[in-house]
């Protein structure tokens, strides 16, 4: 880990700036290093681990869904009972050391805008970088989505999001409404129900459970659906909206016990709970919003990359409106294996871009 104490007026130069040091950022940095490209990796987190370092303690490594090794270094011998935040944080730190990735942290990137001479100006809490290309690998964890419902501000209990979920122990004896139809909502419910006085599961759409394996063909089909939205300039959908919820042993037990009996979304929130359109109500002490995340790309706003549909249109990893910008871990590359592959693809495209610039050829 490299603490950054630079003068904020300093302007540094690099061929490529990578923003974010999670799975997508480290994969990109690995491929940039192998390609011999001048680059810098900026990460706002205090230590290695990407978003994993902020996961709740009860999410042990053995319960992690779909963690894929970074390129060039497997994660082996991990204790499945240890918190995933510790296991993956240590793995990412060891990876940075092994490949000498020299991540600079903590650095907050506030804006990326047009610079001088066709370069990008990357403004950060630790000064300014001038770059010929940028790989954005910021993920979604920093942008939790909080939906709005009538009366929400009147609720006298506690409201929190998956992003600051502390684990089940704080819900002992409480009446809890969990809102959301994804994997996190299911995990929260299953463990909270063991200590809470009462739990209620609320989703906008009926959950779809996937029985059986999820192989390569199913994975390709899911990625294709997400990719189609991104190519149209629409915001990426959640993974579960495409793949469904895995029907494992714990989920089967939750369905059998009634913990995973789902109700449609309520009509409004009251001081003491929630009310449905038919007049039924549930009293609650806590509302836990497991409502997902949005892509953390606000710092790219000065470049005007968004389409009318609200998303950034991407071909491969390249932003259609600016070929200097590559989004890794966005849309179809949001999975850990997808981020690995996209990191390599982005670097190949950037090499072509820089080669054209060197010979003075017009941009494609």
Molecular structure report:
The chain is of the alpha/beta class. The protein has helices at residues 23-35, 84-98, 183-192, 216-231, 239-243, 249-257, 336-359; strands spanning 11-19, 39-42, 109-114, 120-124, 127-136, 158-161, 175-179, 198-203, 209-210, 245-246, 262-264, 268-270, 273-275, 281-283, 286-289, 314-315, 318-319, 322-327. The protein is globular. Strands 1, 2, 3, 4, 5, 16, 17 and 18 form an 8-stranded mixed sheet that branches. It has 7 helices and 18 strands.
Keywords, separated by commas or semicolons:
about 375 residues; alpha/beta; 8-stranded mixed beta sheet; 5-stranded parallel beta sheet; 7 helices; about 25% helix
What topology does this entry show?
Elements: E1 11-19, H1 23-35, E2 39-42, H2 84-98, E3 109-114, E4 120-124, E5 127-136, E6 158-161, E7 175-179, H3 183-192, E8 198-203, E9 209-210, H4 216-231, H5 239-243, E10 245-246, H6 249-257, E11 262-264, E12 268-270, E13 273-275, E14 281-283, E15 286-289, E16 314-315, E17 318-319, E18 322-327, H7 336-359
Parallel strand pairs: 1-2, 1-5, 5-18, 6-15, 7-8, 7-15, 8-11, 9-10
Antiparallel strand pairs: 3-4, 4-5, 12-13, 13-14, 16-17, 17-18
Helix pairs in contact: 1-7
